[in-house]
Design a protein that fits this description.
The chain is α+β, with helices and mostly antiparallel strands and 101 residues long. It is 45% helix and 23% strand. The protein has a 3-stranded antiparallel β-sheet with strand order 1-2-3. The radius of gyration is 18 Å and the shape is extended.
C-alpha cells in the first residue's frame, strides 16, 4: 500500500513539475545528449536551479530497444554512492583498507 502511495505521489509531483518547467534550450539539450551518448545511457535528466526558477533538461529514449523519447514525467533511478565513497575514503585515510573486505 505504501509503495502504491509513493508511486501516486511521484506521478503527481512529476505532473506538477511538467506544468511549471520551462522549455529546455536547444544548446542545453544538445550538451546533455552528448554526455548521454558518450556514456551510452538510454536517457539523462538534469535540473538547473536558478533564483526564482527550476529548469529541466532531458534527452534520450525510454528504453534502448524502443525509439520512444524520454519525457519529464518518466521515472528515473536516483542512485546513491555516498556510503560507498565515504567508506572508501575512511579506509584509505586510516590505512586499513585491507580490513574492510
Amino acid at each position: 500500500m505504501l509503495a502504491h502511495a509513493l508511486k501516486i505521489g511521484s506521478l503527481f509531483l512529476g505532473l506538477l513539475l511538467a506544468q511549471t518547467a520551462r522549455a529546455q534550450s536547444l544548446a542545453a539539450q544538445q550538451a546533455l545528449d552528448s554526455i548521454r551518448s558518450k556514456y551510452k545511457l538510454p536517457a539523462l535528466l538534469a535540473a538547473v536551479i536558478e533564483p526564482g526558477q527550476i529548469r529541466y533538461v532531458y534527452a534520450g529514449v525510454r528504453r534502448n530497444d524502443r525509439p520512444a523519447p524520454v519525457k519529464l514525467t518518466d521515472y528515473f533511478h536516483l542512485g546513491s554512492d555516498t556510503k560507498a565513497i565515504t567508506s572508501l575514503l575512511a579506509a584509505s585515510c586510516t590505512g586499513i583498507a585491507g580490513c574492510w573486505t
